[in-house]
Design brief:
CATH topology: outer membrane lipoprotein receptor (LolB), chain A
Number of strands: 13
Structural class: alpha+beta
Mean pLDDT: 89
Largest sheet: 13 strands, antiparallel
CATH superfamily: Lipoprotein localisation LolA/LolB/LppX
Number of domains: 1
Helix content: 10-25%
CATH class: Mainly Beta
Shape: globular
Length: about 250
């Protein structure tokens, strides 16, 4: 009886140690830097390097009507995203690469400017690049990583980084606590800084490696102005690097 009690005591102590370690690991996430490091740590070995999908790009007009286009997106992580409008390898679309946004029409670049794509950084790149790189990008875009609190979003606990509790104006990003997946970005609207942009990653799907949000909604001052719905999602498809070379926009 004593021997059995001794083994029981050891088992209880072991479980207590496991619980303590688990709680300690969670407690280590005290700020935005720690959270970004934890996101990389969770998925560094379980995330895709390339991704492709088709999407319905839906513009919600003020008169209540919708306009839908078919877009084709391909990503090579970290930092490269190509959007072809209307057809795969279209002469019209957008290319994010090498810290720049390039908009092309009829195969020619019409706009080229420095650009940090925060949705790409927080929803994808964070899992495939050094944490120091992500931290520098996020801080460079004006997010205060020293501020963090918890909220509930879509019924799940989330970390909110960049703003105090109750502040829905200051630049901030929301990360689901359980899976460490990006779910929300709030910041001044790019077209009108007096307005607030609120982008939401929804309907996460588990892929062979990693996750992807199959629906993305864009709100401005509380109004849903644009939605993206993904289909034909492929993790780690074979992609030619030429596809992401601004000098070779039509490359397959």
């Amino acid at each position: 009886m004593r021997k059995r009690s001794a083994w029981a005591a050891v088992a209880v102590m072991a479980l207590a140690c496991v619980a303590s370690t688990s709680v300690g690991a969670v407690a280590e996430i005290k700020d935005g830097e720690g959270l970004l490091r934890a996101m990389l740590g969770r998925y560094a070995q379980d995330w895709y390097e390339t991704l492709s999908f088709q999407q319905d790009a839906i513009t919600h007009n003020a008169d209540g009507t919708n306009k839908t286009e078919i877009w084709y997106e391909a990503a090579m992580l970290p930092g490269k995203l190509r959007i072809d409008i209307g057809a795969a390898d279209s002469p019209n679309g957008m290319l994010v690469a090498d810290g720049k946004l390039n908009i092309f029409k009829n195969g020619e670049v019409t706009v080229s400017q420095p650009f940090v794509h925060m949705l790409l950084v927080l929803g994808f790149d964070v899992y495939k690049q050094p944490a120091e790189t992500t931290i520098a990008q996020v801080q460079g875009q004006g997010f205060d990583l020293s501020k963090m609190h918890e909220e509930t979003w879509e019924g799940e606990p989330v970390y909110v980084v960049g703003a105090e509790k109750g502040d829905l104006k200051t630049k901030q990003f929301w990360i689901e606590k359980k899976r460490l997946l990006f779910v929300r970005l709030i910041q001044p609207d790019r077209q009108d800084a007096a307005k607030t942009s609120d982008t939401r990653f929804m309907d996460y799907r588990k892929l062979s490696v990693g996750w992807v949000a199959a629906r993305v909604e864009f709100y401005v001052d509380g109004k849903n102005e644009f939605s993206e719905i993904y289909s034909n999602i492929q993790a780690n498809p074979k992609l030619d690097e030429k596809k992401f070379d601004v000098r070779n926009l039509k490359a397959k």
